Amino acid sequence: MDLKRMLNLSSETLTEECFEDCLVQSQLSGLAIWWLKPELLKRFNYFYPHPRPNLPTGLGCCWILLVLSKENPDSIFRPGMILPLRWLKSKNHDYDNLPPGLVKLADMVKRQQKIGNDNWGLRFGFKQHPNMSSVLVEEDWWQSAWATLYAGLRLALKEEIPDPTVFATGAWKEGIHEVEGLEEKLQVATEFGAKHFCVPEQAKWKESFDQQRIGDVAIHYLTAGSKPDKVVSNYMALLQSEPPEDATPKKFDAYYINMPREKGLQNFYLKRCKSTVIENAKRYEDIIKNLRNGTLVSWVSAGDELIDVAVEVFQPKRVVLLYTIDKTPNKARTFKDVAESKRAKLEINNSRVFILLPFDENFSIGYLHNEICVKFRDTRLEEPLVIDLTPGMIPMSIALYNSMPENVTFLYWRKKMDKDQNRPIPSTTFPEIWRVCQGKIELLTPDQEPQ
Fold it and tell me: How far apart are CA 190 and CA 431, in angstroms?
């Protein structure tokens, strides 16, 4: 029984004998759990009760989304389907049992990436796979798999593991091209655990895909352009899985630099990068030990990971969090929420936390100075006062710097920046500490300067 004949079968009238015939004669038994309707599998007790299969996530794995037929709502097939595949280094059987249309698309992807025919092959991503080499369907049916195959091969070449919560669909015709069946593909992707779904940029004009989220799934766009790498760059950043816990700091750096903020950029920094920065600060221990158990002042901004680092390094009794009042209500509320959230977290660690509102249309240096003095009136003068100038905008830091009396200790987390993404490289982060005495800057340096 060929695939085209199966398309005309009705799920309502399908008999068990015909069901077995579908699986055996078509050699599609391995695909049944991915392609056939769940209620059908349940009726014939095929792999049921059985949890949905997990997508393969090893090196080179990818998963394409397909829509076989929208004309027969009573079809035995799901409206949207998944075909797990895997790119492998291989000199033989490059496309073992794959259908011709998919083989042709894979060849195009390899040519685009200048990969020789003897270097990489594409296989099914599961063990009990069928022989589909004689399955003839229109070549256009496979074209929407281009984005997935291209990004999957790029990731395999980098020896990175894909994230099974990230899905995509998009064809290539001298640039990213619109595809059909987005609703059906989103439906099956959601069923298999999707958190991110990348679609061609043209989908922005579709009413159902002109939003940032649909249900629990974030929608992203494959951007227009004539260079494939550029088109899939956002998708690639999402697709790369988080490095394992025992990875090197350089691996964590590389992932952090390209990581989309939507995947939890700050949480990743605190979980994987913070320890390296704290280790770097140990070179300054002779200086830092005399600055502990005092007060730490810092700005709250969109990226406030270094507040957590500073608190752990300087171990203050009190933390003063400063944030701005912007004329735009949404921004004001955002930074207030961030400050409140940060305060709650720090108070768990037994630090006494204040929140000030120093920046609004009535702001002045005198106002800031008076507010700090009021908050610090119960602070003994001999206790250390450390002002972290790293977070926040430059005008904020300058105002704060100018409002402080002499002998206050200033802190700036010095780091190298990635030029392409304009992000700090975590493992290059070190504290720079100084005071201003009688108008002169006194830089406090360890015996051994960091390289």
Answer: 44
Residue by residue, DSSP assigns 64-125 as EEE---SS-TT-SB-SSEEEEEEEEE-SS-TTTT--HHHHHHHHHHHHHTT--TTTEEEEES
Interacting residues of 160 by C-beta distance below 8 A, sequence separation 6+: 59, 240, 241
Q: Which CATH architecture has domain 274-444?
A: 3-Layer(aba) Sandwich (3.40)
Averaged pLDDT in 10-residue chunks for the chain of 451 residues = 66 76 65 80 69 83 86 78 90 74 92 81 80 67 94 93 95 90 92 93 78 90 90 93 93 92 89 96 94 88 85 89 66 70 76 61 56 58 83 74 80 93 94 89 71 42
Determine the topology of domain 3-239 in CATH: Ribosomal Protein S5; domain 2 (3.30.230)
Report how many helices (DSSP H) and strands (DSSP E) the chain contains, helices first.
17, 18
3-state helix, strand, coil in the chain (%, to 5): 40, 20, 40
- pLDDT for position 47: 64
Instruction: Give the ranges where 209-348 is alpha helix by DSSP (H).
Output: 228-231, 233-239, 249-258, 265-268, 274-281, 285-288, 305-314, 329-348
Return d(Cα 41, Cα 47) in angstroms, integer: 7
pLDDT of residue 369: 58
**How many Å apart are CA 206 and CA 178, to the nearest integer?**
11
pTM: 0.79
Question: If we measure between CA atoms, which residue out of 49, 44, 157, 152 comes closest to residue 106?
Answer: 152
